[in-house]
Specification:
The complex is a heterodimer of chains A (about 230) and B (about 300). Chain A is built from 10 helices and 10 strands. With about 230 residues, chain A is an alpha/beta fold. Chain A has a 6-stranded mixed sheet, sandwiched between helices. In chain A, a hairpin with a 2-residue loop joins strand 9 (about 200-205) and strand 10 (about 210-215). The longest helix of chain A has 18 residues, at about 165-180. Chain B is an all-alpha fold. Chain B has one domain (about 30-250). In chain B, about 70% of the residues lie in helices and about 0% in strands. The mean pLDDT of chain B is about 85. Classes of the chains: A alpha/beta (about 230), B mainly alpha (about 300). Chains A and B meet through helix 2, helix 3 and helix 4 of A and helix 6 and helix 7 of B.
Chain lengths: ~230, ~300
């Protein structure tokens, strides 16, 4: 579905990602684990075209995405839930979701989005900035889904969210994958959440993928060592 | 200073000056709308905004001349056509400027200040070369002349009422576009977070270009309105740009309602005080009051309260 080959990304002269190779199969949920500063967010941003890549290729079903602008990548089927959620805080919940419609060409918010997140329907007239953290996270996911993506990127979705909602979120992500048949890449520091949700767990360390294991074969203790600070 | 006037005189003075202030208010609102949209969206302070307004004024003047010489029978309605042409001319120039100049400077906000200031000088000289240094006045059709006698001492000019109505209409249209249309939603998303707007699939460059065009187009309409209260010269726009900035800052950036309220209070204060003291003294007092209020409320009159 999404093939990342030899991806190098740098800020100025300082290279942060040193040739990543990641393949995401259709309908697969991949978790990318790693401590702060190891390159998770940089990877997400370069996939979205927010940071340019220095070398390598990103291909969606064989179509090269490297060099395209963010909105063009969205049109090709990528969607992004950034770290810190980044919802449009002065716009209402409904308007926030509707911004995603620019890519899909729909004129109404698809009803199944409200089915996934009933709380958003309840609060659709409220300003996004006045929602709680967990609700904002749901809103950010709903906004991304409104673009009808094939691959959904989530950058640390559990950050700053209470544990009971984190478990709920894992269930929701799987439900989205099952009902919409999309692939999900999620970057994480919370191991329990990643094990809950992922089919495959990758560990990123200093800009390189150092472990790549299917869910069943994950050595929790080993992965946890990369996460402990 | 009020001592020399009787109570009824004072009432009439306040009413008439208040109305004169409303025409000023109209020009401020139209100018500030464009400026606030552009500043809010792109963080670009458009120093050439006054020149876009004057372009609209010149277009109105040319349309009026054209109708006078070639279509005198339709002269009564020329103003509506002039307005549309002014909007299109200023809007098109705005889009051209965005494409050729501004978009290369989005990451250098201070440079846009210099660049648009330079642009304003270029435009002023261009107007001087094309239209001449002398100020031109637009001839109004018969139905816009004269005034309505309300009481013995109060009379209200008809063209003033027309400008007011026009401003209300345009403000409503702009707020409709910004708050209820699909395009307006995209504009507001880009205003809030440009990077994220791109990442939900909005073509931010296209939105930028059309927004800049819209802002400048509204300035063009302000120019049309301006021809009724002043004569048009190459540097007339400059006089308004500082006041318009004041309106935007005082109202609170990104708040349409704040812009209107601040344009209203500034123009009324200005116009009423001008009657009793010199124009520059009135300006000094207005500025002092605004500085004092901004020290207490740096975010401007109206600012939305939400979590960041």
């Amino acid at each position: 579905m999404l093939a990342i080959n030899d991806l190098h990304v740098a800020y100025g002269q300082s290279e942060v990602l040193h040739g990543l190779n990641i393949d995401v199969a259709p309908n697969e949920i991949v978790a990318i684990m790693g401590r702060n500063g190891m390159g998770k967010t940089t990877l997400m941003k370069s996939l979205m075209g927010i940071i340019p890549q220095r070398k390598g290729s990103i291909a969606m079903n064989g179509t090269e995405l490297g060099g395209l602008k963010s909105y063009e990548r969205v049109a090709k089927g990528l969607a992004y839930v950034p770290q810190g959620r980044m919802i449009f805080s002065t716009m209402t919940v409904k308007e926030n979701i509707e911004t995603g419609l620019a890519a899909s060409g729909d004129s109404e918010v698809p009803a199944d989005i409200y089915e996934l997140f009933p709380v958003l329907l309840e609060m659709k007239g409220r300003r996004g900035g006045n929602l709680s953290g967990g609700q904002q996270q749901q809103l950010a996911i709903a906004r991304a889904l409104a673009t009808r993506p094939k691959v959904l990127l989530l950058d640390e979705p559990t950050e700053g969210i209470q544990p009971s909602i984190i478990r709920e979120m894992a269930r929701t992500l799987k439900r989205i994958r099952d009902s919409r048949g999309l692939s999900i890449i999620v970057s994480e520091q919370v191991l329990s959440f990643a094990l809950d949700v992922a089919d495959r767990v990758l560990v990123i360390e200093n800009g390189e993928i150092v472990r790549d294991e299917p869910r069943a074969g994950v050595d929790e203790a080993q992965v946890a060592k990369y996460l402990s600070v | 200073m009020f001592g020399d006037y009787s109570l009824s005189d004072l009432g009439a003075i306040f009413a008439m000056q208040g109305f004169a202030g409303l025409i000023l208010f109209s020009v401020y609102v139209l100018m500030a709308l464009g400026l606030a949209i552009i500043f809010g969206q792109m963080g670009v302070i458009n120093m050439a905004h006054g020149e876009f307004m004057i372009l609209g004024a010149y277009v109105t003047w040319m349309t009026s001349n054209f109708f006078q010489s070639y279509l005198p029978s339709l002269f009564a309605g020329y103003f509506f056509i002039a307005m549309i042409l002014a909007f299109l001319a200023s809007g098109a120039l705005g889009m051209l400027v965005e494409w050729a100049l501004i978009r290369h400077l989005y990451k250098r906000p201070l440079d846009t200040l210099l660049a648009t200031w330079g642009l304003s000088l270029i435009l002023q000289q261009a107007y001087r070369s094309i239209f001449g240094a002398r100020e031109v006045g637009v001839e109004l059709p018969q139905w816009m002349l004269g005034s309505k006698q309300v009481t013995d001492t109060i009379e209200i000019p008809i063209n003033g009422m027309f400008v007011m109505a026009l401003t209300v209409l345009i403000t409503l249209a702009v707020s409709y576009v910004l708050f209820w249309s699909r395009w307006g939603r995209q504009v507001r998303a880009v205003v809030q977070n440009r990077v994220m707007a791109g990442a939900v699939g909005i073509n931010t460059e296209k939105v930028d270009r059309y927004t800049f065009g819209l802002g400048c187009g509204i300035a063009g309409i302000a120019g049309s309105a301006f021809t009724m209260i002043g004569s048009t010269g190459p540097t007339s726009g400059q006089l308004y740009i500082v006041d318009t900035f004041l309106v935007v800052v005082f109202g609170g950036a990104a708040s349409l309602f704040g812009t209107i309220a601040s344009a209203f209070s500034i123009s009324q204060a200005q116009s009423t005080m001008e009657f009793f003291m010199s124009g520059s003294m009135a300006k000094v007092l207005t500025l002092l009051a605004i500085v004092a209020i901004l020290m207490v409320r740096p975010q401007g009159l109206f600012a939305l309260k939400v979590r960041k």
